[in-house]
Design goal:
about 210 residues; mainly alpha; about 0% strand; elongated
Length: about 210
């Protein structure tokens, strides 16, 4: 890694990071609109959630194009996603639009995978997002605003559609969690064997 690349890794003032911060800043506004509790504000909350979700794509895309992937972005991006999704799931449960069991399953899954990734990172194992996890995120990002808006839009019953999509999201979440666990227990022994072989080689060379 050249010095310029290393400097960019520790740069905070980048467009992707500002987009991530904007996504975090949207969370209290979405929650406040849902607390007010009328159809107009529900729709506003859904639209704001949708706009915030779109920034999740653009911050990653811009970071790759501009080669401005930073340590701060790697930390803040998944946190921003979880702040947004978890806050909205809890609000939907509070409003009686989502069963508590669904909220428990989704939040516990996120906590478990975050812990597993942290453990893998400590062992030097990189666990990238699986395809099933990406589908989980996509279905959630559509289901949640549909359930926020609740009232039919242009004659389309978006709330029942959101319920179906969230049920699909839960199923995919459980499936992707299994993928992560399998990947972890597959990569961990490989990493340890490689580390042991490197250590033995180093001892032989010395």
């Amino acid at each position: 890694m050249n010095p310029n690349q290393q400097d960019r890794e520790f740069e905070f003032a980048t467009t992707p990071n500002f987009l991530t911060l904007a996504r975090m800043a949207c969370v209290p506004f979405v929650v406040a609109l849902l607390f007010i509790g009328n159809p107009k504000n529900d729709l506003s909350a859904a639209l704001l959630f949708g706009a915030a979700s779109i920034t999740d794509y653009f911050d990653g895309y811009i970071a790759r194009v501009q080669k401005s992937v930073s340590i701060y972005g790697k930390l803040m991006d998944p946190l921003a996603d979880k702040f947004l999704v978890v806050s909205c799931l809890i609000m939907l449960q509070h409003l009686g639009r989502l069963h508590p069991v669904a909220v428990i399953l989704l939040i516990c899954r996120e906590l478990a995978i975050t812990g597993l990734r942290a453990l893998a990172s400590a062992e030097g194992v990189v666990m990238s997002s699986s395809q099933s996890a990406k589908w989980k995120t996509a279905t959630q990002m559509v289901a949640i605003p549909f359930m926020m808006a609740k009232e039919p839009l242009f004659g389309v019953p978006i709330y029942p559609i959101g319920q179906v999509l969230l049920a699909i999201s839960i199923a995919i979440s459980m499936w992707s969690a299994v993928d992560y666990v399998v990947e972890f227990f597959k990569k961990l022994p490989e990493r340890r064997r490689a580390r042991k072989a490197a250590k033995n080689q180093s001892q032989q060379d010395s």
